[in-house]
TrEMBL record:
It comes from Flavobacterium ichthyis. It is found in: Membrane. Its main location: membrane. It holds the Pfam family RDD. Keywords: Membrane, Transmembrane, Transmembrane helix. It is a multi-pass membrane protein. This is RDD domain-containing protein. It comes from the Bacteria. The chain crosses the membrane at residues 57-76, 88-107, 182-201. Residues 47-177 form the RDD domain. InterPro entries: RDD (IPR010432).
């Protein structure tokens, strides 16, 4: 979006330059040759030419650094540049980009307008020997000669290399009509326009982000309700202290009744170093929930919570500036339910990306070892079914036709030969989700 703003600013600046330049005429002085007086164009001073070099270099850096930043965020351009960086080296790619934009800058502006921004500010212009606009061939020759090392300083001699060799000159314009100093007005005008566009884009992005956040929260709540509705003894409620006065607590589902659920409390503040080593800490608990449960189930501490209270715990309260979940009361403290996570079986994370004409869905197993035995609509990128899916190993990538929305199924078999089916789906502008269906 910032790239879009820059393009509008460049177009706006170009139209202003074109309008202002149309009112300018060349400055001449009368020179006597015997009895004859001749009008001669006045060439620009060496100091002004030095100003041109400095100002145009600054303008190139200002404009094209922003353009490059916008372009490299476009996936196929980023992939193209990375590919060539691997072939010829990053420095070579940067050199080629700099040369390209430098040639593009001078060639475009001097061919269309006969000036660059620096020449507009100093009220000068590029002409041929007759004082007319140079031909395209002369501008090309002039532009390419600028690439000669240290050529920029050749204008300190009688005539610059790119002027002399291409048969072009930089001459003064008459100080009539719009003064060169007024061109500086383009800066505040462009800034005002840029700010207005930026504000509009930022407002749009904020509205879009708020809408996406609301959709994600709605989807998250729907997933929570569905998991609660179909909760099993493999599911664990992950609780976070609302006031940060306690480490995380895990509630392992133990007994499911019609109206209430009995949980085994797995308190991460307990010292489990005798079981997991001296470097164990509570932040690692989520990865060893199953082992902690095996330790605690011999003499479990339990809590019975109605399904109604679990639903209430997920309700949001507060104001616009500060919102939080109602939560559950455990050990006399308030805890927010952050997630219902499944253990004691395979558990998957999914992500989505696009490249070219294809969509890629990555699946990573965070639970028990499993084997992928069936996939609908998508196909494995590497290898054929069945494919082993070990815990926290490299993800499996599935490939399909490029799309921002999809809905397909996979089937896996775990280490106990149990068969599980999952539905992987994605809605527009939202992250993909995976849901066990049986």
């Amino acid at each position: 979006m910032n790239f879009f703003i820059l393009l509008i600013q460049l177009l706006f600046s170009y139209e202003i330059l074109k309008f202002l330049q149309s009112s300018k005429t060349l400055n001449t002085q009368l020179t006597k040759y015997g009895n004859t007086e001749t009008s001669v164009l006045i060439e620009t001073s060496k100091f002004t030419r030095f100003f041109h070099h400095v100002m145009d270099t600054f303008t190139i850096l200002l404009i094209f650094s922003a353009v490059i930043m916008g372009l490299v965020n476009i996936p196929f351009i980023k992939d193209f540049l990375n590919s060539w960086s691997n072939r010829i080296g990053e420095q070579a790619v940067i050199f080629i980009i700099v040369v390209f934009f430098r040639v593009f800058y001078y060639l475009t502006l001097e061919a269309i307008l006969g000036v660059t921004p620096a020449k507009l500010l100093s009220e000068t212009r590029v002409v041929d020997q007759q004082g007319a606009k140079p031909s395209t061939n002369k501008i090309i020759s002039r532009t390419l000669l600028r690439l000669v090392p240290f050529e920029a300083f050749s204008f300190f001699m009688h005539s610059g290399l790119h002027d002399k060799t291409s048969g072009t000159y930089v001459v003064n314009e008459k100080r009539t009509g719009v003064k060169g100093s007024l061109y500086f007005l383009m800066i505040p005008v462009s800034l005002i326009l840029g700010f207005a566009l930026w504000y509009g884009v930022e407002t749009y992005n904020q509205v879009k982000a708020d809408r996406q956040f609301a959709l994600e929260e709605k989807l998250k709540n729907e997933i929570f309700l569905e998991k609660l509705k179909n909760i099993s003894t493999h599911d664990v409620l992950i609780l976070k202290a609302i006031n940060y006065d306690h480490d995380a607590i895990f509630l392992k589902t133990e007994i499911i009744e019609n109206e209430a659920i009995t949980f085994v409390i797995l308190d991460t503040e307990k010292d489990y170093r005798p079981y997991f080593g001296e470097f164990y800490n509570s932040r690692q608990a989520e990865n060893v929930v199953e082992k902690i449960y095996e330790i605690e189930k011999q003499n479990p501490e339990t809590v019975k919570i109605t399904k109604k209270n679990i639903l209430k715990a997920n309700e949001t309260i507060g104001n616009e500036n500060f919102q939080y979940k109602k939560g559950l009361t455990i050990f006399g403290k308030q805890f927010e339910i952050t997630e219902i996570k499944t253990y004691f079986e395979p558990r998957f994370n999914v992500y989505h990306s696009q490249s070219g004409d294809n969509s890629f869905v990555g699946i990573q197993n965070e639970g028990w070892p499993a084997t992928l035995i069936a996939v609908t609509k998508f196909t494995p990128k590497d290898g054929n079914l069945p494919i082993q899916m070990t815990k926290n190993d490299n993800s499996i990538t599935l490939i399909g036709t490029k799309t921002d929305t999809f809905d397909f199924q996979i089937k896996v078999k775990d280490s106990l030969n149990r068969i599980f089916s999952y539905k992987i789906s994605k809605k527009k502008d939202l992250n993909p989700i995976i849901k066990k269906i049986k």
